[in-house]
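Chapter review: from sequence to fold.
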Amino acid sequence: MSAWNLLDRLNDPRSFLRSMRGLWKSGGMLVLSTPYTLLEEFTPKENCLSEYSENGEYIRAFEGMSRILRESFERTTPPVDVVPFVIRETERKLQHTITELSMWRKS
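The C-alpha cell string follows.
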C-alpha cells in the first residue's frame, strides 16, 4: 500500500499511522510520500507529527512518523526527496513542492 501526500490533509495523521499496524502481514511494504506541509487548517497542532519535546528539542515530522511506525515496521531505505509537483494556489501564485519518500516493511 502507498499513501501519497495524504498525511498532510488528515485531521489525525498519528492515528492513521497507528492503524497501519493491523493492515499488514509480516513482510508487507508500506510506501509513504509527503512534503510534511502539515497545516492547522487540516491537522490540529496536538495531532501534528512534528512537535517540541519536554526539554524544548524540536522533533521533525519524519522523526515523529518514524517513532510511531518503528513499533511495527522497519525502514527499508533512507528517505529520499522525490516527486516534485506544482499546485496552483491562485491565478498568479504557484506552490512548488518536493515530497519525501520512505519505505517500510512490516516486522
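Two observations follow directly from the output. The chain has one domain: 2-106. The beta strands are 2-4, 29-34, 51-52, 58-59, 73-75, 80-88, 94-106.
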